[in-house]
Structure formats: structure tokens, C-alpha cells
Amino acid sequence: MGRGRLIVFEGADGVGKSTQVGLLADWLAAAGREPVVVREPGGTPVGEAIRQVLLQPEHVMAPLTETLLFGAARHEVVERVIRPALADGRVVLADRFTLSTVAYQHFGAGVPRERVDTVNAWATGGLQPDLTLVLTAPTPRLTLQDRMEQRDAGFHARVREGYEMLSREHCSSRHHRLVVLAQAGDAAHVAAAVLDAVRPLLEGEGGRRA
Ligand code: TYD
């Protein structure tokens, strides 16, 4: 049995993240390592119910309420799905994780960074991804269907800038587990870059650092 690995996809709305999660899942399945795929908010029955509360356009809530709800959904998926899967040696692909809350609720909505970091620490119990892939795109495609996507252009610009700052922060702290992938070319091009980043992790030595 292989070692469990947590691979996270991050990025602003409309950068094609979910497409890449699907392509990597197909590749892993074909390679005989059927992954566990989760999305946030969601991934568990309670998480999906929280997702409805968070994304319904008519819901109005304070930024900290929103942060706590994202944190609650994350705790559920970490405890009920991700940790058991990793303990089983599975590869887990997560469509968003802790960086989303920093990018959206801190940089986008102005919740103090230490509060977001505290909620993330509670939610994950310190579980860190083995690899985070941050996707960027010159012209993200927004469908404007949910409460987060309907925020103004300034909010989305701050989120994108937030991801850039977080990527620099991770690089300057020699955090080798974060890779930024700029969308140049079609989805297949990006998928090839994703595989380049993921392959060493699956073949690499050493256990995971929980
Ligand atoms: P979703 O439809 O999954 O968007 P995407 O396909 O872009 O991931 O909706 C999730 C929305 O919730 C998205 O706008 C990002 C936002 N979000 C936060 O604001 N904070 C978070 O911690 C997470 C996980 C998501």
C-alpha cells in the first residue's frame, strides 16, 4: 500500500481548478491509485449543508460568521474523510483548503489574519497538505451563480492579489510544498504541469509530515 498524500488545488474563482482536479483524478485512477476527491465547502453531509448556507445569494452574514462556517465544514471533512483516507494510504485531492480562507476571508473580506489562522488551525488540527497547487489565470471566468462569486470586482481583485502574496510568502519561507501554475495554453497543458509537480511526491521517499 502506498503512503497517504494530501494534494490541494487552490486559486481564485474561474481559474479552471475543478477541471484539473478531475484530470488528475483520472490519471491517478489509471495509474492504479484511485484517489479520494473532496471539495470545500462540502465533502460530507454536514459540510454540504453548510455549503448551502454559505453560497445562497440571499444570505447576509458577518465576515467572521462566514469564516467560522468555512472552518466548521473543513473540520468535518478533515476528521471524517481526509484523515481516515490518509491513514489508509490513499491519495486525497482537495478542491480548496486553508489557503482559500486566508485569500477570501482575510484578503477579500478583511477578517484579521490571526483570526483566520486560528480557525484554520482548529479546523485542521495542524494537518498540512503534502503539496498545494495554486492555479492562476489572466481572465478568470465567473459564473456569478453563488454568493461568493457575486461579490464586487474589488473583492475578487483582493482575493487574486491575496493568492499572489501567499505564494510569495511560501516561497520566501522556502516552503517547497507550494507550486504556482499559470494557465498558459489549454487544460491539457496545465494538466501536464500538474503531473510534473505531483509525480515526485508519489515516487518520493519519507513519510508525510502531519
Ligand atoms: P465553488 O462553487 O466550489 O467555487 P470554485 O469552483 O471556484 O471552488 O464555491 C466555493 C466558493 O467559496 C468560492 O467562491 C470560494 C469560496 N470559499 C471561501 O470564501 N473560503 C473558503 O475557505 C473556501 C473553502 C471557499
Describe the overall structure.
The chain has 210 residues and is of the alpha/beta class. It has a single domain (5-202), classed as Rossmann fold, CATH 3.40.50. Helices cover 52% and strands 12% of the residues. The chain is built from seven helices and five strands; from the N terminus they run E-H-E-H-H-E-H-H-E-H-E-H. It has helices at residues 17-30, 45-55, 63-87, 98-108, 113-124, 153-172, 187-203, and strands at 5-10, 36-39, 91-95, 131-136, 178-182. Strands 2-3-1-4-5 form a five-stranded parallel β-sheet, with helices on both faces. Helix 1 (17-30) packs across helix 7, helix 2 packs antiparallel against helix 3 and helix 4 packs across helix 6. The two termini are 18 Å apart. The mean pLDDT is 91. Bound molecules: thymidine-5'-diphosphate. Thymidine-5'-diphosphate is lined by residues 13, 17-18, 39-41, 55, 70, 95-96, 100-101, 104-105, 146, 148-149.
Strand order of the largest sheet: 2-3-1-4-5
Q: Which spans of ≥5 residues are poorly predicted at pLDDT below 50? A: none
Proportion of residues in helical segments: 40-55%
Q: How many structural units, i.e. domains?
A: 1
The CATH topology: Rossmann fold
Taking the sheet with the most strands, its summary is: 5 strands, parallel
Portion in strands: 5-15%
- Give helix and strand order, one letter per element, not per position: EHEHHEHHEHEH
CATH class: Alpha Beta
The tally of strands reads 5
Distance between the termini: 18 Å
Number of helices: 7
Q: Write down the overall mean pLDDT.
A: 91
Structural class: alpha/beta
CATH superfamily: P-loop containing nucleotide triphosphate hydrolases
For the record, the CATH architecture stands as 3-Layer(aba) Sandwich
